[in-house]
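Quick one:
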Amino acid sequence: SELIRRNLAEQMAMTLTRDPSFKAALVSALSGRILELSPTRDIN
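Output:
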């Protein structure tokens, strides 16, 4: 699981360096998921 996550992060980073417009979409998607997930875990 950790290895998969690391590989995915590396692929994303490589994509970001090539495609600036993808960065905006990725940030938007990730921030949406983070806002979705964090209230159940990190309220206090």
